[in-house]
Design a protein that fits this description.
alpha/beta, 261 residues, 6 strands, 49% helix, Undecaprenyl pyrophosphate synthetase
Length: 261
């Protein structure tokens, strides 16, 4: 009885929330690029008295559901923070389980109905050379098989990613060009730096959402997030609902973006 009532109340609230954001969506008042920090898998599992690795699996299942929500909102770019450079310092067994999950996910994603239907291009960013070769091969397969999609949305997945690491890699790349004489220090500006980031060619995120209630970016898109709107959802990632995304969109629509002006 309680479950049926909760479901009924949820549908009523969902309908009300949609009525608040739908006009803005139709008028194009919505983010073109949303970045998502998928946090709280392990804590969700512990709260349910489940082993940690099941939390990651539940997070993967949730992601499959979430992709449709994003694309229904006509969001052109979605960036997911899947695994940071700092995450390599976690328990060896957990890292191994995650790598196995990543390999499986990248192989499966090219067959995902939403990926095919929406013609989504996959791009992976980060120090992917630090990943096991089997994961690198799966990434290459996902990127290659979706490279034909040029007009649809782009799904960017950050694996082995760190904002500081990205900046260091960009600085090294620029320094190398200065050393070999193809660039001078006078050439360096924001546009040049942007071209040397992992996200070259991708617009900065309009909205960054973090689940789990934590209110920090944890090195995510350090350069690109300078003028992003931030939204912190007080729910662990496997428990993320459509209304949580719509609340974030509602908050975004209510803000006036000034870009420092």
């Amino acid at each position: 009885m309680k479950i049926a009532l909760d479901s009924f109340l949820y549908r009523i609230y969902e309908k009300k929330l949609w009525s608040q954001i739908k006009d803005g969506i139709k008028e194009g008042v919505h983010p073109q690029h949303v970045a998502l920090i998928m946090d709280g898998n392990r804590r969700y599992a512990r709260a349910k008295n489940l082993p940690s690795h099941l939390g990651h699996q539940l997070g993967q299942q949730k992601l499959k559901e979430i992709l449709k929500w994003f694309y229904d909102l006509q969001i052109k770019y979605v960036t997911l923070y899947a695994f940071s450079t700092e995450n390599f310092n976690r328990n060896e067994e957990e890292v191994k389980e995650l790598m196995t999950l990543f390999e499986k996910s990248f192989k499966e994603i090219i067959e995902h109905p939403e990926i095919k239907k929406r013609k989504v291009r996959i791009k992976v960013i980060g120090r992917t050379h630090l990943l096991p070769q089997s994961v690198q091969n799966a990434i290459q397969m996902a990127e290659t098989n979706t490279a034909i999609y040029n007009d649809g949305p782009t799904l960017i997945i950050a694996v082995g990613y760190g904002g500081r690491a990205e900046m260091i890699d960009a600085i090294k790349s620029i320094a190398k060009k200065i050393e070999n004489g193809t660039m001078t220090s006078a050439d360096i500006n924001e546009v040049v730096v942007g071209r040397h980031l992992y996200t070259n060619g991708i617009p900065d995120p309009d909205l960054i959402i973090r689940t789990s209630g934590e209110e920090r970016l944890s090195g995510f898109l350090t350069w690109q997030s300078a003028y992003s709107e931030l939204y912190f959802a007080d729910v662990y990632f496997p428990g993320f609902r459509k209304i949580d995304l719509w609340r974030a969109i509602r908050t975004y629509q209510s803000r006036q973006r000034r870009f420092g002006k």
